[in-house]
Amino acid sequence: FLDEIKAKDGVVNAYITVTEQEALERAEEVQKMIDSGELSDSPLAGVPVGIKDNISTKGIKTSCASKILGDFKPPYNAAVIDKLNKAGAVIIGKLNMDEFAMGSTSETSFYGPTKNPWDTEKVPGGSSGGAAAAVSAKEAPYALGSDTGGSIRQPASFCGVTGMKPTYGAVSRYGLIAYASSLDQIGPVAKDAADCAAIMDIICGKDEMDGTSLEVEHKGYLNSLSGNVDGLRIGIPKQCFGDGLNKDVKKSVLAVAETLKENGASVEEFDMTIIDYVVPTYYIIASAEASSNLSRFDGVKYGFRSENFDDLTDLYMSTRSEGFGEEVKRRILLGTFALSTGYYDAYYKKALQVKALIKQAFDEAYKKYDVILFPAAPTTAPKLGSSLSDPLKMYLSDIYTVSVNLAGLPGISVPCGFDEDGMPIGAQLVGAPLKDDVILNAAYTYQ
Ligand code: GLN
């Protein structure tokens, strides 16, 4: 994998940091542990992994692809990193992303855009574009990404790999640098659902360092993959297949339903009219939380500090002006506005109310269905540079992913075909809370 990185990453730019030396030393150490039988029950022992650069790695630069974090090296590991290490994983580097995970193309990175390995003139999706591109280009066998509003599932679909956002709370967020805390989840990006299940077995579970993490009762995701979907009830929300959906995407995603039907599942269309409100609701809530979370980057505690300042307030202002990119500043402004006196009720409070309605709509649907199927994105990967000038258009392209975060549900994107230019398409399978095993098995059966 290090050789693949050397051969391809000059163009793909999936990695911000490659930890070659540490990885080779760690691999020797893990090999000894494997030889002594210590890691015999760990299927991922010795397997390299790339980590999105917003997940804290002790002593390894963690930048969130932002200038403001400079060469910041966290003094501790995220919970998921400790878990991976215990399972014998070998971290080979930190992956590129949209700055602070804000974006859908991985073009807002301070370290330059990641390219889609299928066509390097196109974006890999975002914000975990580095993770999806690395797995797709075989620069890593699997990766950990984060998903606040689609950032694992959408790039997975653009790059022809499998990406999963677990149920909110299934995986500890301790050490994940926060974007929107009520929506953020860490999850796997891998070749297929079976690999995702193996990774989930390692990273999920209650963590006392994250008050929102949940007790996950399961027999092991990997072991419970049966390849059997007999009797599985699949719901297809009509409103997710209307105008604005690319025809190749529509055809390929609906074909997934057919395949699962041939394997014994039942398929039915239903109405989900709330879909019109998910994007505005998401962007109010995510920006509001981001504006609060990002207030800690003030030039005092972490990384970059401006050299041009007269007093303390000026230090904060110059550091933030010089350290944050355009998109991050836009979100901070939007979020601060939505939370300000006089506007809070009209925007933030309203958005929370609609969020409750979105959750309700899904709860209703899960009385009738086990899995809801729709696309991961309305199109395949767009050309580099074509989205940046129109942020609203980019926000609207998140239509199929953000509701899953707002409702706290597990969702997985699986490759299901190609458009007429040969670019990959992803279908999304979404489950009820803590039914991560159900979507993994449906995805596994399909694959
Ligand atoms: N594209 C969405 C955003 O920009 C989702 C990002 C994410 O999931 N981190 O907010």
From TrEMBL:
<keyword id="KW-0067">ATP-binding</keyword>
<keyword id="KW-0648">Protein biosynthesis</keyword>
<dbReference type="InterPro" id="IPR036928">
    <property type="entry name" value="AS_sf"/>
</dbReference>
<comment type="function">
    <text>Allows the formation of correctly charged Gln-tRNA(Gln) through the transamidation of misacylated Glu-tRNA(Gln) in organisms which lack glutaminyl-tRNA synthetase. The reaction takes place in the presence of glutamine and ATP through an activated gamma-phospho-Glu-tRNA(Gln).</text>
</comment>
<dbReference type="InterPro" id="IPR000120">
    <property type="entry name" value="Amidase"/>
</dbReference>
<dbReference type="GO" id="GO:0005524">
    <property type="term" value="F:ATP binding"/>
</dbReference>
<dbReference type="GO" id="GO:0016787">
    <property type="term" value="F:hydrolase activity"/>
</dbReference>
<keyword id="KW-0547">Nucleotide-binding</keyword>
<feature type="domain" description="Amidase">
    <location>
        <begin position="1"/>
        <end position="440"/>
    </location>
</feature>
<dbReference type="GO" id="GO:0030956">
    <property type="term" value="C:glutamyl-tRNA(Gln) amidotransferase complex"/>
</dbReference>
<keyword id="KW-0436">Ligase</keyword>
<dbReference type="GO" id="GO:0016740">
    <property type="term" value="F:transferase activity"/>
</dbReference>
<keyword id="KW-0808">Transferase</keyword>
<dbReference type="Pfam" id="PF01425">
    <property type="entry name" value="Amidase"/>
</dbReference>
<comment type="similarity">
    <text>Belongs to the amidase family. GatA subfamily.</text>
</comment>
<keyword id="KW-0378">Hydrolase</keyword>
<feature type="active site" description="Acyl-ester intermediate">
    <location>
        <position position="151"/>
    </location>
</feature>
<feature type="active site" description="Charge relay system">
    <location>
        <position position="52"/>
    </location>
</feature>
<dbReference type="InterPro" id="IPR020556">
    <property type="entry name" value="Amidase_CS"/>
</dbReference>
<protein>
    <recommendedName>
        <fullName>Glutamyl-tRNA(Gln) amidotransferase subunit A</fullName>
        <ecNumber>6.3.5.7</ecNumber>
    </recommendedName>
</protein>
<dbReference type="InterPro" id="IPR004412">
    <property type="entry name" value="GatA"/>
</dbReference>
<dbReference type="GO" id="GO:0050567">
    <property type="term" value="F:glutaminyl-tRNA synthase (glutamine-hydrolyzing) activity"/>
</dbReference>
<dbReference type="GO" id="GO:0006412">
    <property type="term" value="P:translation"/>
</dbReference>
<dbReference type="InterPro" id="IPR023631">
    <property type="entry name" value="Amidase_dom"/>
</dbReference>
<feature type="active site" description="Charge relay system">
    <location>
        <position position="127"/>
    </location>
</feature>
<comment type="subunit">
    <text>Heterotrimer of A, B and C subunits.</text>
</comment>
